[in-house]
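Hey, quick one: can you model this chain's 3D structure?
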Amino acid sequence: MKLRNLLLLSLLCVTWLCQAATKPNIIVIYTDDHGWPDIGVAGINHDVRTPHLDQLAAAGVYATSGYSTAPQCVPSRAGLLSGKSQNRFGVESNGVPLDGFDAELTIAERLKKAGYATGQIGKWHLGPTDKITDHGFDDVYSKNANRPCHVNYTLDGKTIKMQMVNDGLYHLDACSEAARVFIERHQEKPFFLYLAYRAPHVPLDAPKKYLSRFPGKMPERRRQALAMISAMDDGIGLIRKTLKAHDLEKNTLIFYIGDNGAPLKIHKLDAPGGGPGWDGSLNKPMNGEKGMLSEGGMRVPFVVAWPGTIPGGQIYDHPVSSLDVAATSVALAGLPADKTLDGVNLVPFLNGQKQGAPHESLQWRWISQAAIREGNWKFLKGGKREYLYNLANDREEKTNLLLSEPKIAARLKTKLSAWADEMNPPGLETKGMSETWEQYYDFYLDGKPAPPLRTKFHPSEPGGNTETENTQGWIARNAKLSIGKGALQITTDKGKQQRPFIVQSRLKLKGPINARVQVSTEQAGKVGFAWRLEGQKDFTKDQIANADVKGAPDFQDVEINIPAEGTVIHLRLFLPAGRTAVRRIQLIGGNERILKSWSFDN
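Sure thing. Here's the predicted structure for all 602 residues.
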């Protein structure tokens, strides 16, 4: 009996090993606010340098009609990782409760059941980073900025308890190194790796190592975007080198996908610093930008490679979606088909086993906008406006065929409405168009002149200095304010007895907030934030938080917790008397999400 059991156990082990050997590793590389044409293989923007990504495409498929699930970070990630349209479970946009996502199975949770090791690296944006393991990820290296991050393994391959770690590396380089280590840690079994670079999303923060690759005259924000894309490309090279070193190349399926189009803010203002605004990436020839269901907001870089299984060198024009990642992964892991997933297994279509388009249609809804693509026809609704485009000869969405093809428009709208009625909540929109989106539709889709370039920030306090673009909206009270030597320079007015401070208004930030300031001051004293909440007519004495600073010429990092209960609309940053220089200000939300960031050192 013992011998029989031993033989049975051996047979089961052999069977498991054979199955494990046939299950491919799966890597999803997800970029952030990355315009559709900003990869070399697109052949459009010749200032882009992505040799490793171009080689990956040459070894696989460049999907020219690859789409995200939303034109914004949080919902697009919720859709990707769940494999379902995020509208089904109420994650419509940034800032909404994530209960619906928390109740869904992620790709990681599904693949763990099939024996996969799972890892998350980089930007999370779907709740607290110290809780990522609750969503099926074994290994976590959740770094998306140049600051400490939550990790449960080190870059020398050791497993540790989840904790905050400061590796001292540029965040994109750290993510690439973490990916290399993850592969080496799990090379003996199938693995699923979700690598989400925070690039070229603002704040733009590329070091000289990458900036020097793009000399010559160009907007500085463009240089920063190209540098950050180049840093990610180096990461792709490191990943492929690691796979090859461990003979895993032919057993690894790699997706490279963007989360949405680039934010242009219409004017593509080359504002100094690396904070809010245009991120330097481009969408043209696609029309529109992040926050729109036009092609510029939704069509994204999309590359798929699996050497030896998917023939290389393909240009694939049929529409595909980031929703397909989950369905593909589940099928390749040998798990039962799940009809609740909204995507399809792409592999049979990319290796020639199946002909035709993977999708009969793709649908989207984002707040006040909804769209459907069926074949080359696209129907788009933004508030009360409606559009119909034939993308076969008008991918730029310049010619609205709504009046000339009313039957096609009506049929697509009916189909889109039926889909939208299945969502939570149902309907073609969840609320009306904002002024910003009305202006975007005016400019991009209706051909109206661009709105005047408004002064980005308006002083709202009497006695403030004259606003200049270089100060990025900060104005001074009881002091003079200028920009120089890579910092805001604040000098106390002679004869002023009141404490000097600088002001930022027209905010809308949900508290509590962790403020991080890089400051140099000639006098020791206190640096502090006072805040005014929505509904408050003025500042109150109890709403101020301070931290001590040394008087020294070197810059020092100061952290101040702003325990605001509500929405912060107005901030004062109080400083010691004398001369003070402020190099950076960051406002961080509860899940380590950057709410606002100002940088004056580039």
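One thing worth noting: The longest helix spans residues 220-245.
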